């Protein structure tokens, strides 16, 4: 069944791949970003200018969307950490019975049962920590939020982003909270295959009010 999917950050790396995959499957997709349409727009995606920091816009979007996807930076959304915007997103989603899907970070994923988190391991890049910890705060806020809120949060593998585009395999593996790794200990996923996992979750609802991890 076709859904109306609104993506905040729909022109970014993860959001753009999710938009493309969702449209490919016949969903209606609207992208909101500060820049509007990108230089190379995805056919079938409607582009608009807007920020997740605009609570009135978020409420209007949630009124018509089946799923609101958050694919923005964790540490800075128009000068605010993303976690500070979760209350307004929650209010809008509850008011209109809208599902919320979050593009999370790998840093909050566990490297072993019971921990530690990837961000807490000695080799984690210090420059990445503020963003990783900001996304971890968002996950904590969702878990502590109202039980009525319908949400999911998808943590990618350790190597994920435009700087590590990876290979499109057409498949992915998942776990609950454990970082998905290969037999050699590496952890990566392409933007295209991450989008497969994300849109599959929109369609199948396998992780209601849960985080899951994904990787090759």
Automatic annotation (TrEMBL):
One function term, GO molecular function aspect: oxidoreductase activity, acting on the CH-NH group of donors, NAD or NADP as acceptor
InterPro entries, sorted: NAD(P)-bd_dom, NAD(P)-bd_dom_sf, Polyketide_Oxido-like
Q: Would you tell me the protein name for this molecule?
A: NAD(P)-binding domain-containing protein
Taking every annotated instance into account, which residue ranges of this chain make up the domain NAD(P)-binding? 9-198
Q: Which organism is it from?
A: Gordonia polyisoprenivorans (strain DSM 44266 / VH2)
Domain of life, per the record? Bacteria
Pfam families of this UniProt entry?
NAD_binding_10
């Amino acid at each position: 069944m076709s859904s109306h999917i609104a993506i905040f950050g729909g022109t970014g790396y993860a959001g753009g791949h999710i938009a493309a995959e969702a449209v490919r499957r016949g969903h209606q997709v609207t992208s909101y970003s500060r820049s509007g349409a990108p230089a190379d727009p995805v056919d079938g995606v409607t582009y608009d200018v807007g920020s997740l920091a605009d609570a009135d816009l978020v409420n209007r979007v949630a009124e018509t969307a089946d799923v609101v996807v958050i694919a923005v930076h964790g540490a800075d959304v128009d000068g605010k950490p993303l976690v500070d915007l979760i209350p307004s997103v929650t209010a809008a989603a509850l008011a209109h019975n809208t599902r919320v899907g979050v593009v999370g970070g790998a840093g909050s994923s566990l490297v072993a049962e019971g921990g530690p988190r990837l961000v807490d391991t000695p080799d984690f890049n210090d420059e990445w920590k503020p963003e990783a910890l900001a996304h971890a705060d968002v996950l904590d806020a969702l878990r502590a939020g109202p039980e009525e809120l319908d949400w999911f949060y998808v943590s990618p593998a350790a190597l994920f982003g435009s700087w590590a585009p990876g290979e499109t395999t057409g498949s992915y593996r998942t776990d609950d909270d454990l970082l998905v790794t290969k037999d050699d200990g590496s952890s990566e996923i392409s933007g295209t295959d991450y989008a497969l996992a994300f849109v599959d979750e929109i369609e199948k609802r396998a992780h209601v009010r849960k985080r899951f991890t994904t990787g090759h």
